[in-house]
Amino acid sequence: MSQGIKKYTGFVLSVGNGAVGKTSLSRILDQHTLGGCSYSEIIGSIKKTKNLEFDFIPIKMAKNGTEYRVLVQLLVPPGQKESEGDRSSRSFEDIIRIYDFYIQKFDVILFMYRINDPITFFDLDQWVEKVIRFCTPSTNFLLLGTHSDQIRSRQISPDQVEAGVAHFNQKITKLLPNWRGFCHRLEISNLTGENLKELKMYLAYSIIHSQSGLSN
Ligand SMILES: Nc1nc2c(ncn2[C@@H]2O[C@H](COP(=O)(O)OP(=O)(O)OP(=O)(O)O)[C@@H](O)[C@H]2O)c(=O)[nH]1
Ligand SMILES: [Mg+2]
Questions:
Q1: What is the pLDDT of residue 215?
Q2: Which residues line ligand 1 (CB under 6 A)?
Q3: In the CATH hierarchy, which fold is given to the domain comprising 5-212?
Q4: For a substitution probing ligand 1, which of 27, 46, 117, 149 has the most ligand atoms within 8 Å of its CB?
Q5: Low-confidence spans in the chain with pLDDT less than 50
Q6: Which atom in ligand 1 lies closest to the alpha carbon of residue 25?
Q7: Spans of all domains in the chain
Q8: Interacting residues of 122 by C-beta distance below 8 A, sequence separation 6+
Q9: Cα separation of 63 and 71, whole Å?
Q10: Which residues partner with 146 through β-bridges?
Q11: Could you count the other beta carbons within 10 Å of the beta carbon of residue 160?
């Protein structure tokens, strides 16, 4: 028997080095239908991010007779770091300074890397420190590998990712002593759409969890 509809609005931030696929993901999730097609046309035309981008993603989910409607507000900053010293376009830090008043606490942080580029994976450690001030004790985290369509050239093994999740759990607990959220991992392809439905479900669940004050 239906127990009605519950509505949530969640705030999600995706971070990670340049060209890991942050903007591609946000454009594709913005499409209403997912799966069974190639997104090469969409992702092929995407340019490097130079300003704060955002998209709205509506997600429907049913559980135990209740329908959940979750509206995700996804913010996508540049992947360029100030430490790279490229003054020809705005870095992540420039954007944070400009939009500080607008950026609030997030329900979910996506730490994005390319499964075939180790630097993007190991640099995630720096990204945790850059975003922790936008987190609360109930923020949830996801280590999100892209380019799963290029699995044959993968350079980060599933075991390394698992060790990364354990490291993040420790690091976040140290930085946010009352943290009661969770940190998981997932690999996707912005080209083939692999695991994007799973990602949507993860986002909806994480937002509901974060806002309901549920414990692990
Ligand atoms: N094969 C493949 N290509 C991808 C995937 N995701 C993104 N790309 C490509 O990688 C390029 C970089 O993607 P972007 O979405 O611009 O990366 P970004 O993280 O937003 O980069 P910045 O804006 O510089 O921070 C794009 O031109 C896409 O064509 C993926 O999962 N598979
Ligand atoms: Mg971008």
A1: 45
A2: 18-24, 43-44, 46, 48-49, 78-79, 146-147, 149-150, 189-191
A3: Rossmann fold (3.40.50)
A4: 46
A5: 215-216
A6: 15
A7: 5-212
A8: none
A9: 17
A10: 114
A11: 13
Strand 66-76, strand 53-63: pairing: antiparallel
Asked if residues 118 and 156 have their Cβ atoms less than 8 Å apart, the reply is: yes
For 23-72, how does the pLDDT look when each residue is reduced to its tens digit (9 = 90+)? Answer: 999 999 977 565 556 788 889 889 999 999 999 999 999 988 999 999 99
Give the number of the ligand closest to the Cα of residue 24.
1
State in Å: Cα 123 to ligand 1 middle.
17
**CA dist., res. 50 & res. 91, Å (int):** 7
Q: What is the pLDDT of residue 30?
A: 79
Distance CA(196)–CA(204), nearest Å, equals: 12
Q: Which two tokens stand for residue 162?
A: 């698992």
